[in-house]
Amino acid sequence: MAQRETEIMPVGTQLTSMQLVIHKADETKAEAVEAIFASGESQLLSTATDWTLEITQGLWPQLPSWCWPPESWEFQKVGTIGTPGFDEVLECSRTYNEVGELVGLSIRFAGGTFTIRSGAHITCQLTRHTSQ
């Protein structure tokens, strides 16, 4: 699947939060991540059918249309994203698979790095930077 190059969280982007999209029946697996920007807009990061990372315009505060029935889905806030040290994007780097398709992002903040990977489900990891 050809991935269109989209400007994804350029340096200086202000985030107010990151929200995991979770099916209530299996709260251990995220199906997507919604990045909410200070501008009020959002981007939805989800796994495409070929397990690449798909990035689309978000509908915050509405759930994505594929969340059916809506009462079976919810947003879960990602801890400290949007708080001081985790609110301004310093760098956003992409990860590609062996055939050049986008499969992940690494978003660096002053306080740490938030990594998103596509696959059977979205996986996320927040790593705090330690003082030297």
Written description of the protein model:
By secondary structure, the protein is mainly β. The chain has one domain (15-128). It is 0% helix and 44% strand. The protein is built from no helices and nine strands. The chain has strands at residues 15-23, 30-37, 42-47, 53-57, 73-77, 91-96, 102-108, 112-117, 123-128. The strands form two sheets. Strands 4-3-2-1-5 form a five-stranded antiparallel β-sheet, with no helix packed on it. Strands 6-7-8-9 form a four-stranded antiparallel β-sheet, with no helix packed on it. A hairpin with a 4-residue loop joins β2 and β3. Mean pLDDT is 92; it is low at 1-5.
Low-confidence segments: 1-5
Note the overall shape.
globular
Q: Alpha-carbon distance between the termini?
A: 42 Å
Order of helices and strands: EEEEEEEEE
| Total discrete domains | 1
In terms of DSSP E residues, the strand content is 35-45%
Q: C-alpha Rg, in Å? A: 14 Å
- Find the structural class using helix and strand composition: mainly beta
Task: Summarize the biggest pleated sheet.
Answer: 5 strands, antiparallel
Strand order, biggest sheet? 4-3-2-1-5
Mean pLDDT value: 92
Helical coverage, percent range: under 10%
Count of separate DSSP helical elements: 0
Number of strands: 9
